[in-house]
From TrEMBL:
Biological classification of the source: Eukaryota, Metazoa, Chordata, Craniata, Vertebrata
Gene label: Plekhh3
SMART domains xref list: MyTH4
UniProt domain MyTH4: residue ranges: 1-140
Record protein name field: PKHH3 protein
Classification via Pfam families: MyTH4 (PF00784), RA_2 (PF21989)
PROSITE patterns documented for this protein: MYTH4
InterPro entries (UniProt xref): Actin_motor_Myosin, MyTH4_dom, MyTH4_dom_sf
Length: 219
């Protein structure tokens, strides 16, 4: 394989590095940066996505300490993977079979992660950016992020979003209602848009853009 971006070597060598990262994940006190590094490599080198899914399925099949720190870290990375990448159809079928097996222990943390992952796989369409450090933290707890949207002429709105929430969904479901009620615009024909603003620029957010990707760019 030809060298990839970010000074990557061959796919074979990068796959070995990722395997070593997964081994390190078992005992890592703060696994978030390591998880983000694995996700970034998969984003830059898509052929490795299936490899990591298969390795994670292997690591979470009959682990030596079910529910232990290492086992949970693998499930948490699998959760982040499911919100970022879709595996190929054969690997997806294999993964779903693995998730279904967790129903044997319905009250376990592994079963809860499996349920979350199964739902995420039905929504994931691919990401422009890997999850931010904040997003990884909330995914590890199977929670949503809180996104603050500043509205003209009204106080800022706090909106709960997932890894799959688009700008259009936020605009239609929450922000628009706030503006309509607070500014008395129920009869107005105007449309609303979301903008991302940094120190250097301000630009509209496309309706199909994932808000989680916008937050990652700010990070």
């Amino acid at each position: 394989a030809a060298p990839g971006p970010h000074s990557y070597t061959t796919l074979r060598d990068e796959a070995v590095k990722l395997f070593n990262s997964l081994q390190q994940l078992e005992s890592e006190r703060d696994p978030v940066p390591l998880m983000q590094g694995v996700l970034q490599t998969c984003l830059d080198l898509p052929p490795l996505v299936d490899e990591i899914y298969c390795q994670l399925v292997k690591q979470t099949t009959e682990p030596p300490a079910p529910g232990g720190q290492g086992d949970l870290h693998y499930w948490q990375l699998l959760t982040c993977m499911s919100c970022t990448f879709l595996p190929s159809p054969p690997v997806l079928r294999f993964l779903r079979f693995h998730l279904d097996r967790q129903s044997r222990f319905p009250t376990s943390e592994m079963a809860k992660y499996a349920c979350f992952i199964r739902e995420a796989l039905g929504k994931t369409k691919g990401r422009e950016c890997v999850p931010s450090l904040e997003e990884i933290l909330v995914l590890m707890r199977r929670q949503e992020m809180i996104c603050t949207v500043h509205c003209p002429g009204a106080p800022a709105c706090s909106v709960a979003i997932s890894s799959h929430t688009t700008a259009e969904e936020v605009r239609a479901a929450a922000v628009a209602r706030e503006l309509v009620s607070r500014l008395g615009l129920s009869q107005s024909p105007n449309l609303f848009a979301l903008y991302e603003q940094s120190r250097r620029r301000e630009q509209p957010v496309g309706s199909t853009t994932l808000l989680a990707d916008v937050l990652t760019r700010f990070e």
